[in-house]
Amino acid sequence: MRLLLVEDDVLLGEGVELGLRKAGYAVDWVRDGEAATTALIAEDYELMVLDIGLPKKSGLDVLKELRDSGDKLPVMILTAMASVDHRVQGLDAGADDYLTKPFDLAELYARLRALARRNTGRTESLIEYGDIRLDPAAYDVHKGGDKVDLSRREYAVLLSLLENTGRVMSREMLEQTMYGWGEEVGSNAVEVYVHHLRKKLGNELIRTIRGIGYMIDKE
Amino acid sequence: MKVSLSSRLLKILMTMLLVSGGITICSSYLDAEEEIQELFDAELARSARLLLSLSQAGFDKVNLSELQLYLQENKLQENLITEGDELSPGHLYEKKILFQIFDAEQKLILRSDNAPLVAIMDKLNGYFDVELNGSRWRTFSVWNRLMEYKVVVAESYEVRSELLDNIMLRLVVPYLVLLPVLLLLLRWAISQGLKPLKVVTDEVSKLDERHLTDLDIEFVPEEIQPLITALDRLFERLRSSFDKERRFSADAAHELRTPLAALRTHVQLMRADEEAKKFILSLDKIMLAVDRATHVVDQLTNLVKYDEGSKVPKLSLLDLRELSVQISADLVPFALEKAIDLSVADTGSMRVYGDESALGMLVRNLIDNAIRYTQFGGKVEVCFSQSVSTVSLHVTDNGPGIDDADYGKVFERFHRGEGHVLSGCGIGLAIVDEIARLHMAEINLTRPEHHSGLHVEVVFNV
Hints:
Strand order of the largest sheet of chain A: 2-1-3-4-5
Largest sheet of chain B: 5 strands, antiparallel
Helix content of chain A: 40-55%
Number of domains of chain A: 2
Structural class of chain A: alpha/beta
CATH class of the largest domain in chain A: Alpha Beta
Number of helices of chain A: 8
Oligomer: heterodimer
CATH architecture of the largest domain in chain A: 3-Layer(aba) Sandwich
Structural class of chain B: alpha+beta
Shape of chain B: rod-shaped
CATH superfamily of the largest domain in chain A: Response regulator
Radius of gyration of chain B: 51 Å
Largest interface: A-B, 35 and 37 residues
Order of helices and strands of chain A: EHEHEHEHEHEEEEHEHHEE
Number of strands of chain B: 12
Radius of gyration of chain A: 21 Å
């Protein structure tokens, strides 16, 4: 997959370039805004990782020109500007995602994969966690090869917990994911479904964080 | 050296009053003295001439010795102290006035009862001072034109000096009585006059170092205007240097992000490499160091963000509990790394007015701090309480707590308790303090009742 990396800092650029190559991308690395625009015209890319503070032409200008020309190339902004305002500015200019420095390489990989996936329309993929396998396309769940019967709401709770492993989902957040699945949700509904899920999939799977919510640990 | 403007003014004014009063009294005294001398001298001369005319007119017809006897008999009683009564009219001063009359041969022919038998003055015409019975007398001698009789009248200087003393007393006493009254009046007048200074002082002392606005004083006296202008200029300079300092921190934090990102990326690349396996412990430590530096940079950015003194937060009604749940959810992984039991009490909604992102930062820093400074396997509790007019957030941990001596210092920037090995950077509570200040909330730090640790309470007015 061809990727254009625009980063003016040599130290960071080298690291990211190397990392992305290892992750299987064919990386072209340019160090200023004008070179980025030239590269975008000359070559066909499937992804772009773009810094904002660049010599000659700012990353935001590069992005705006790209969008004005009707190009829908997925763009990940990588910048030291940490404030919410900057983030909104970047997203408004047409960025698809935004990562602040310093960042985790693993997170960069994951976000880039998500971007590429969104672009090709494959939004839902098989989720595997330990011996549990969830297939969003088929709405079914297997544990150790055996199919587990789950209600739609139990499924919704499990899906959002598995999609967010390592993060706590508050009761309110889980309730919201269930609204899309039918009727009104009672006040203890989340507790009830978590209880059911534990019975069907094992007690250790879902962790309760008192007063805050539930989570499934990262694998 | 401490100098009081009002006592200085008072000293100067009092000195001037004393000096001018003294000069006035002295000159009045000298003036009165001269007038009295003139007047008494004139009186003396007139008495002498009267006696002289009488002698010329009648001495050849009178028996002089009878006349002298008559004078002796009617003399003022020695023991008469008071001014004469109706039966024997007279005056105490009479014995201080005397006369002698001589004939052409310088023989004493007539004298007042108190006059000596010898000539007190043998000079010719005019005024002379003589010594008589131990006191000074003023004399006036005059001959008649034919040189038949000479009249000498004398008056003790005591008469004059007593009069002068009286005058002096009348001048000085009221002045001395008035002096303390004047002093009080002056004090009052000075304090009234210096009132504008106090207004300026009050106005300046009300200023917060983060809110250095220009002074707003209604009636500025001309004399103080330069001071106020100078202060305003100083504030302007301070403001700009505060701004510079803020920008500097923000810029420094910003500039550190890219090198930190590079460092992190390269360490992660190495860590993923099979050949670097034997360095894995060191690499992990480098990552920890990078995390710590990143935390400092983040906190600096936050501090600068909420430190902008004049910035008024965007207030909206929000649920402090819901916000705390969201923030806690983010921090759970961090708590789990240390096996810390983080919990949020399930009270109903706790509504306060606040800026969502700022309050989120406040809650995050309190919980983050509690987790950071609590030992492996510890406990961090978030709960709430409310009264009629307040809503309070409580964050309690069972960590080591803080030393008594440190309670006042924890809000200082980069202050950290002594000797700990944890990963805080000492800005967290400073940020909390700034945000609480923006929300006019009060922060209380106490030791939990039943165990070690720290209990932070933030009281919001609703």
